[in-house]
Amino acid sequence: MPTGIYARYPKSPKERFLAKITKTKTCWLWKESKGRYAHFRLFGKPVRINRAAYILFIGPIPEGYEVCHTCDNTKCVRPSHLFLGTHLDNMVDMVNKSRAVGHVGENNPNAKLSKEDIIVIRTLLNIGKKPRHILPLFAISRTQLGRIRTSESWKFI
Question: Which terminus of the chain, N or C, has fewer Cβ atoms within 10 Å?
Answer without folding.
Answer: N
